[in-house]
Every structure is written in C-alpha cells, then in structure tokens.
Amino acid sequence: MKKIKPAFLPAILILCLLIGSIGNLTSVLGVPALLVVVLLGAGLYFGAPRLDHLSTRQLRWGIGLGLLAMLIAQVVVLHVMPNTVYHDPYRVLSQADQLAAGHMTWDITYFWRYANNVPLAYLLSLWLRLTQLVGLSTNLSVHLLSILVLDSFIALALHTIWQLSQRASLLVVAFGFFALSPFAYTYYLQVFYSDLPTMLVLLIIIRSLLNWSQKTSRQRWFAGSGLVVAVMLGAMLKPNLVVLLPALLIVGLILARQHLWRQAKLTLPILLIVLGFGLSLPATKVFDVAANYQPRTAFSFPATHWILMGYNQHSNGGYSGKDVGRAIKQPSQADRQRYNLKTIPKRIKTLGVVGVIRLWVVKLGIVLNVQGIQRWYNGGFRAAPSWYSNHAGFYQGLTVIGYVAATLLMWGALMLKLLRWRPDLTDPHQILALLAVTTALGYLAFHTLLWEVEPRYGQAILPLLWVALAAIPRQASQSRPRWANQASLLSGATASLVAFGAAGVLGAQLPQKQVIAAQRSQLSVQYHAKPKTVTPGTVLAEVVDVNAPANYFSVQIHAGSQVQVTLTNLATGQHYRLTMAGSVARLHHQLAAGQYRITVQNLTTRGQQVDVTHTYHYQLAAHPLTVNGQSQPTASLIYTCMQR
C-alpha cells in the first residue's frame, strides 16, 4: 500500500483552520461558542455509536421530515422577515429585472467596473422571464430561486456525504449543520448572489469525479457533460474557480510520483475540466452579446486593483474605499494599471517580511470568519417583527453562537481526521479527499497571498471541507461506556442551555444599532445612478411600518438638494421635521411603534434632485411610493429606521 509521508497539505490546512478558529472566537460570544463546541463534540462522541445503528429506513424518514420542516421554516422566514438587499446583489438583481422587462441597456458604471457579474445578471434575467410566463412576481421568483439553489445544495451535500462515508452519525451531523444552524435561514436564503451557486458548482464538480473509474460509458458521458457545463458556468460566475487547475496539477503530480496515474483514470475528467474553463471565455462573449453588454475599459479596473487592496494594511487587505476612489480618478485602465504596478511593491516594502506575514495571518482570519453571516449584504429587515426587534440582541447572539459553533465543530472533526490521515491513493475516495483539500488551500492562498478578502469568500471551501471529512477513512472506533447515551443527551442539553443563556445575557452587549425598518436598496451615486428630478410643488410620500420603538430615522435625499422632509405618525398625526446633513435628512427622536408616512416636498421654484430607487417588477417595500398621489408600487425612497 502506497503512502504519502508526511501529510504536508493536510498539515497546512490544519494550520489555516486553527487560525480561522481563533478569529471566530474573538468576539464577546467567543467563549460560549467554544463551550458549545466542546459540549456538542462530547455529545457526538458518546452518541455516535447509537446514531450509527440507525437503519436506512429511519435515516430516510428522519432526514426527509427534517428537510421538510426546514423548507417550511424557510418559507416562513422569507414571508415574515424579508430583508433589504443592498450593494452588489441588489445591482445584479436590478439589472436582471431591467433585462427581463426587455430594456437591454446598462445604465450605471458598476458592470463596466465589475464585468464578472454580467453573466449572473443575464442568467437571473432568464429565470425571471421564465417565471413571468407562469405568473410569478419577481419577488416570489427570486425567493423561489434562492430556495431551489440552497436546498439543492443541501440535499446534494447530504447525499454526497452518505455516499462517501456510509456513516449515519456523520450524515446526522451534516444535517444538523445545514438545517439546524443559521446556514439555511440567513444570507444564503435571503440574498441571492454568486456565492451559493459557486458552492453548488464546486460540489457538482467533485461529485462528477466520484467513482469515475467505476462508471460505465453511459454514466461517464452524462457525468462528463455535466462536468463541462458546471466548470463553464462556475468560471463565468466566479473567476477564482481557476484555483481548481493548479489543485488538479498538484494531485496529478502526486499520483504520477506514486505511479498511480493510470489506475486513477483521471485523464479524461481533467481534460473535460480544462475544456470547461476554455469554453467559459467564448460563452461569456455570447452572454455579453445576448445581453447587449459592451465593455468600456475607461471604467474597468485591472486585476492588479484587487491585489493592491489585498496589500492595504489599513483595510487589513479588504475592500478599501480610498483605493477605489483613487482608481476612479485615473483617466484610463492603463493609468490604473501603471499606478497599481508602481504602488504594490511599495506597499510590500513598507510592510516588510514580518508585516507581510502578519497581514497574511490577519487576512486568513478574516476570510474564514463566519460571525457576520446574518449581516452579509443585508441592509436590515424591511419591517422587522416586534418580537424580533424587542429581543434583537438575543436572536443576533444566538445566530452568531449557532453558526460559529457549527462551523468550528465541523472544522474540529476535520482537523482530527487530517492529523491522523496518511493518504492511500489506491482508494478513489481518498484521491477525491486530497483534491478537496488541495482546492480548499488554493482558495485560501488566493485570497490570503494575492487578492483582497471578505468573510464571505471563505465559505466557498465549505463543500470541499465536507467532502474531505466524509471521504477520509474513519479510525477504528473505540468502545463507549454504558453511560454514553446519557452523557450524550446531557451534553447536548447543556450545549443548548449555554447557547440560549449566553445569547440572552451577552447578546445585550452586541452593537446596539438595530435596524427596525429599512429600504436601503439603491444603485449608488458612485456608479452614476441618476436621481429623480422633483419639479416645484411635487410631493413624494411613502408609508413605513415601524413595528418596535425607534429613536433614529433617515431618508437619503441627494447632495445639495433643497427639499422639506417630514415624518408623520399616522395614528396620532404628529409631525417631525427632518434636518439635512449632507445628502441625508435625519431625525433623532423617540418614535413609538406604528405606521409612519415619509413626505418629501419641493417647496422651491426650481427642480430638486431626490434619490429614488425604481425597478420594473421587483417590489422594494411593503408600501408604494406615491408622487402627487399617484402610486408607484415598484419605486421607493431610501430610508433607515433604527434603535441606536
């Protein structure tokens, strides 16, 4: 039996996950999250043998009913707590809505700057057109798409984990991670963006390679076709999927060195993956033509722009508004490229060897941080229910503890396996595990050593880590004491008490800026979104549901605009005058729960500009914007109501 010693790549991944674990424990909720991990880990250790004795019938019924309950809960969340999607996902959604309505124009500079989101906008527009044929609203269509992609990913992940491990206990744990943690009910459910489709694509790619050598010719034809399409779409949606190529090269070299290349029979699937990457380039051009998109290099950023931000120590290698502003001021893409190539070496030199290594560690901690899953691209709920707003600290704390604990528990189980693993590459499943580990390291290296970072980026490796956890062989199980079942139940119950108790006590110490109601979706002035010109005497009005007490209200108007903005309590008739501060009209006053009307009036003798978000079919808020009494259901002011 051929072995690889030492297990170098697994050791690097262990180090990365350790750094990520420390980064996730830095908040006030870190200690209770760690305690929950320990308790759940102990409970699973003692309870695993009992779970492994579940019959296939019991597993099917249990998982099936659990997934059904998850689906019901997802529908309830989307109905009760729709959020206000902002930043990049909203711009993609807005453009898709526009294309689906037949307006094949690109009116803001965003897509000229970030052309990688053009295919996503076009594909989303095709989905909206399809669902319009059966009478679905755009809002319902987007929610349906989120559920389909998310639940397909979860179901496929569970099926893959079972195929690789044949362990009931691991399948139950995976179900708990996906369906009982915030994973299925927060960012991936409430915001449709490229992150989740990328994870699904990665899972499909890995599944296509599963047991390839044992497939029949017919099975290989279907799997190969799906592999090419998955790689092509994945490369179009997220170009960083290219890290799969060096990962395949590394695994191929290891197999060749062990004289196992022919036995693995991976030549054809690797060629198909390369073909998929090759087809992504002409396919992108086809999508551009179909969407009537024409790149403009005067606005586009070169790839070095993200490398430049990746070595900005002031932003810890993340998004830098100053770097973006400076790039915008450059007259051409060539000038931006020259500036970047000149500045990047200076930044590295200023950091020095120690500074660069420190920055890499910080970036790795950021890219693997999952504490903010509820906040990713979520501008706040449109009108949070009172039961949520009145106990927001508790729910937010529970969300953080829940997902951090679930993530660290999975990482911990994987690290223990990686620590003892010496890959036996005569086993196709272990080849798959090695590819998953190598690809995960590729993603982490790409963002840590080269690119800019955001916490969302690290989630791309989630399906890879689960595949590795399931595919690496289990060690011989040790006997458990007679009281193991009771210890398992006690540990689980204690973990729940710790999570709920810590969320209640420490949740109050979380940042207290709680969004009560909001509509923050907009195309943004920085991307040359056009404001609405309000003629003299025009009155804009919009009703807002405020379901809990608040003490701050703001309405985005426009820089230099001279309009009068008031807020009226519809139950009492009390008026509040908002004061201008830059481009925003603000009110600092205690507001009781109830319905309020925002009124924007142009009392001057000339036109005034007001930032209004307008779509074609996507409804932004619960109540329409009215202009001189005329209702516009798909238009809205940009406002935020908070308890600060």
Automatic annotation (TrEMBL):
The transmembrane residues are: 7-23, 29-47, 59-81, 140-161, 168-185, 191-210, 222-255, 267-287, 351-373, 393-419, 431-451, 488-510
For this UniProt record, the keywords arranged alphabetically read as follows: Membrane, Plasmid, Transmembrane, Transmembrane helix
Q: Does the keyword Transmembrane helix belong to this entry?
A: yes
Its signal peptide is none
Q: Mind telling me what this protein is named?
A: Integral membrane protein
Which source organism? Pediococcus damnosus
What does the record give as the organism's lineage? Bacteria, Bacillati, Bacillota, Bacilli, Lactobacillales
